[in-house]
Amino acid sequence: MNTRWKLAAVLGCILFSALLGSRTSLADTPSAGEPGIWQKHEYSFAFLGFTSTYSCDGLATKLRLLLIASGARHDAKARAGACASGFGRPDKFARADLTFYTLAPGQTGAVSGATPIGATPVDGIWQPVSLADRSPRELSTGDCELVDQFRTAVLPMFTTRNIDNHTTCVPHQLSGSVINLKFESFSAPSLPRKAQAQQGGS
Q1: What is the rounded distance in angstroms from the CA atom of residue 50 to the CA atom of residue 201?
Q2: How many other C-beta atoms can be found within 10 angstroms of the C-beta atom of residue 62?
Q3: 68 phi and psi angles, rounded to 5 deg
Q4: DSSP assignment of 86-106, as one string?
Q5: Is 176 left (phi over 0), alpha (psi -120 to 50) or beta?
Q6: Cα torsion at 65, 92, 174, 80 (round to 10°)?
Q7: How many Å apart are CA 53 and CA 62, to the nearest integer?
Q8: Which tops the pLDDT comparison, 76 or 110?
């Protein structure tokens, strides 16, 4: 009799462990994506900072880096604006013209007119983004004011959530400045540039 009870107890433990394991694996499975619509944005960015100075083409390069890192479609464009200084020369009034697409859940883009009506929805997922010194690799502490201005002027054009900003920029010095911006961005899974553009249908 004792042997039967022991056998039943062992089988019960095995069954319970199996059920617990299946529940855990289901919980760990990433949630399915949701449909999104590409929205087009055009923005003239004028850098205003005290510590770093950019050439217009250098500013455009940094801004495109931030656009892609934040979840913009890979055909994002950042062109040097009208600057008094020549190519590659620092300009206190550096400008860049941005043209880029971000993903918005559901039919938001078609309703608002930001994208052509009838644009094909694409699968979107929430992806974590972390901006810090050397994340992305080309970003440095000297870009602190640029990141902070990007956060206030450009990031609202993205669909984001759980923004956690601890960026601190000390004017006229790098010491004490910290880039620490984290958020989740609704964007398309990593795809080759051509595939993303074809999904956008624009």
Answers
A1: 41
A2: 22
A3: -65, -40
A4: -TT--BTT-EEEEEEEEEEET
A5: left
A6: 10
A7: 12
A8: 76
d(CA 101, CA 46): 20
Look at residue 139 and give its three-state secondary structure.
coil
**Distance separating alpha carbons of residues 40 and 43, to the nearest angstrom:** 10
What is the model's pTM? 0.74
Distance in angstroms (rounded) separating the CA atoms of residues 140 and 121 = 36
17, 21, 45, 81 from 28: Cα distances, Å: 16, 11, 41, 47
129: which strand partners? 183
Identify whether 136 is preceded by a cis peptide bond (ω within 30 of 0).
yes
Q: What's the rounded Cα separation, in Å, for the pair 174 and 116?
A: 44
**Tens digits of residue pLDDT in 165-182:** 999 999 988 899 999 999
Q: Which residues pair with 78 in a beta bridge?
A: 98
Q: What percentage of the chain reaches a pLDDT higher than 70?
A: 69
Residue with token string 């920029």: 169
Residue 121 burial class via C-beta count within 10 angstroms: exposed 0-12, middle 13-18, buried 19 and up: middle
Rounding to the nearest 10 degrees, give the CA dihedral for residues 125, 72, 106, 31. Answer: 0
